[in-house]
Amino acid sequence: PQHGQLILEVDNIRKEFGGLVAVNDISFNIQAGQIMGLIGPNGAGKSTTFNLITGVHPLTSGSVRFMGQEIAALSSRKIAALGVGRTFQHVQLLPTMSVLENVALGAHLRVNTGIMQSLLHIERDSEAQMLQEAKKQLERVGLGNYLHEQAGNLSLGQQRIVEIARALALDPTLLLLDEPAAGLRYKEKQELASVLSGLRDEGMSILLVEHDMDFVMRLTNHLVVMDFGTRIAEGTPEQIQVDPVVLEAYLGG
Ligand code: ADP
Ligand code: MG
Question: Where is the ABC transporter domain (predicted)?
Fold first, then answer.
């Protein structure tokens, strides 16, 4: 896509779980080459928003268009195949397999299907081709020296980056990350931030869902803030940082 082209249009999406409005008519757009930050306190509705976009949950109402196509009614598998890549909040690597093998499996990993199911489909593609693609993506994110290391031996920060490489192996147009910096140490956050800004500079579009406001603010010039399912603010980091409503949500809650 051309830089600045509309990649994702989220229009008044709503999710009710029984009487609870987890996502209350949220709208935002993502353009090509943009990192869009979605932040908010725990329970704000960030992951539910993520799950609505990726087809994990059906919408109560609203619409989601990806590259101009309505995707709200599609299965998560179909949405992934169209070019919406994602990582999972909890690391899903096979710890005793190599980093390279874990990423090669990504070519088969589909949203909402487990890694074991991916293993069953492995003979469908040429194994050599998958390994080649996996190597390329690991080099792209700076892990070219860890190809044959057991995934479980890597730091948590490196494992999160392996998961990003695995999502990249599916050649996504849009990458959705749910709290990739959670639990990372300062240096690991720095490394992750540099991988993400590198991808953005290559033109990747990213929706970055984070609890850690400082981490997001380093990476984006556009943020949406949610609290109790509702969009309470939208703007640049400079605007958000001094917004009394945001400060109240984070500190007063
Ligand atoms: P966040 O990711 O911002 O921490 P979530 O989207 O996980 O917030 O949760 C938003 C609200 O929706 C919370 O009150 C949570 O308990 C509720 N919720 C999330 N998923 C479900 C579900 N599957 N069933 C019922 N309630 C849910
Ligand atoms: Mg969450």
Answer: 8-253
Say how far apart CA 131 and CA 101 lie, in whole Å. 7
Residue 45 in contact with ligand 1 by CB distance below 6 A = yes
Whole-number mean pLDDT of the chain?
90
Residue type, position 37, single letter: G
**Mutation test of ligand 1: which of 15, 16, 20 has the most ligand atoms closer than 8 Å to its C-beta?**
20
Domains of the chain, first to last: 1-83+172-253 (3.40.50.300), 93-171 (no CATH)
Does the beta carbon of 44 lie inside 6 Å of ligand 1? yes
pLDDT classification of 116: cutoffs 50, 70, 90: low
Query: Which listed ligand is nearest to 225 at the C-alpha?
Result: 1
ipTM higher than threshold 0.95: yes
> Is the pLDDT assigned to residue 112 strictly greater than 50?
no
Query: Mind listing the pLDDT tens digit for each residue in 202-230?
Result: 999 999 999 888 899 899 989 999 999 99
How far apart CA 226 and CA 216 sit, in angstroms, is: 14
Task: Kindly give the distance from the C-alpha atom of residue 43 to the centroid of ligand 1, in angstroms, as a whole number.
Answer: 6
pTM of the model: 0.90
Q: Taking the CA atoms of the chain, what radius of gyration do you get in angstroms?
A: 18
Pocket test of ligand 1: the residue of 13, 16, 17 to mutate, having most ligand atoms within 8 Å of its CB, is 17
